[in-house]
Amino acid sequence: MAVEAVSRRYGRAVALNGISLTLDAGEILAVLGDSGCGKSTLLRLIAGLDEPDAGEIRIDGHPVAGRGRSVPPEARGVGLMFQDYALFPHLTVLANVRFGLRRLDRAEGRRVALERLAEVGLADKAECYPGTLSGGEAQRVALARALAPRPRVLLLDEPFSNLDAGTRDRVRADTVLVLRQAGASAILVTHDAAEAVEVADRIALMRRGRLLQCGTAETLYRSPESPAAARALGAIVEISGHAVGGGIETPLGSLPRPSRIGEGAVRVCLRPEAIRIGPVGEGRPSRVLRRTFAGSNLRLELAVEGLDRSLLVTLPADAEPTDIVGISLVADRTLVFGDRARADDA
Ligand SMILES: Nc1ncnc2c1ncn2[C@@H]1O[C@H](COP(=O)(O)OP(=O)(O)OP(=O)(O)O)[C@@H](O)[C@H]1O
């Protein structure tokens, strides 16, 4: 599937602004972004529930939307699964799954529906009604129904958000297993970075209707193209710096200047592994303002000499820092962005 330069406005609000994405066969792509960034709009356009103002959408190489073409939703081969599952309460589990197989005759529809229920481990619930299922079971029935006709692309809109934290992890793992076994190509919308990392082959980061970056979790974590992309996968500390000659001066010490970075103001983003905490005398002297025990970690709030705000860092729980520590940077783990990053962030 391919989305090419797709835009959608609602009045003056730009919900999607020139989005381009591809989805390979059998791939799971997570679309990750904050509320209102356009994730659901993107899914609605792919499903055919709404039309793009510009750009084109192709499924299996065939244009389905854009350039004056609009293939109706039922003819696109796209399956949809929403966060509320939308199971029909007055139909049995089996009848719910058969709903997605209306084109098959009665006996064949029943046979395939039972097969799909077995795939999600719920064959024994076929005659139950949705009201009697747990949240996790209802989610699996919805998955069986969405996958029943073997759609070319399955679209999942925040499918785990209604589950409690304990159930969510298990249901998420089960869902990925079912998708992999079915060889399904799927797009999963989420605002939870950990979920995107766990579930997806690639992650498309969206912000304010634009695609920030698309890549594997590892690429996005190690080589984000902007501070906004860096922020999307886990907490970072941001400091400003100044590039001059071969180096960059920052309040936490100097760094070598990467060749792609011009001279002048820069922004340095630090993941936890980019900050080294050592004894006094190694790096910038920093006073521990607060220590918080957090299970396997110890969190420190530090006042660093030369930094205008406190710095939050995490240490292993068995660390025993003194009241004054030394802070330095691990140069090859720092993420440095040039001045253009300011415009991207606006
Ligand atoms: N039918 C509509 N009419 C007017 N504005 C809309 C419509 N649908 C979406 N929008 C606007 O477009 C933007 C993107 O909305 P969208 O629902 O796609 O975001 P989202 O990322 O899915 O958010 P959430 O995570 O909260 O569901 C928002 O500013 C929203 O208010």
Walk me through this protein's architecture.
The protein is globular. With 346 residues, it is an alpha+beta fold. The protein is built from nine helices and 21 strands. The mean pLDDT is 91. A six-stranded mixed β-sheet has the order 7-8-9-3-10-11, sandwiched between helices. The two termini are 31 Å apart. The longest helix has 18 residues, at 165-182. A hairpin with a 2-residue loop joins strand 12 (237-244) and strand 13. It has two domains: 2-227, 3-Layer(aba) Sandwich (Rossmann fold); 235-345, Nucleic acid-binding proteins (OB fold (Dihydrolipoamide Acetyltransferase, E2P), Beta Barrel), CATH 2.40.50. Adenosine-5'-triphosphate is lined by residues 10, 13, 15, 33, 35-41, 191. This is Fe(3+) ions import ATP-binding protein FbpC 2. Residues 1-233 form the ABC transporter domain. Keywords: ATP-binding, Cell membrane, Ion transport, Iron, Iron transport, Membrane, Nucleotide-binding, Transport.
Computed over alpha carbons, the radius of gyration is: 24 Å
**Helix/sheet category:** alpha+beta
Under CATH, the homologous superfamily of the largest domain reads: P-loop containing nucleotide triphosphate hydrolases
Strand residues, percent? 35-45%
Number of strands: 21
Topology as H/E string?
A: EEEHEEEEHHHEHEHEEHHEEEEEEEEEEH
Highest CATH level, the class of the largest domain = Alpha Beta
The ligands found in this model are:
adenosine-5'-triphosphate
The chain-level mean pLDDT equals 91
Q: Count every helix, treating DSSP H or I runs of 4 or more residues as helices.
A: 9
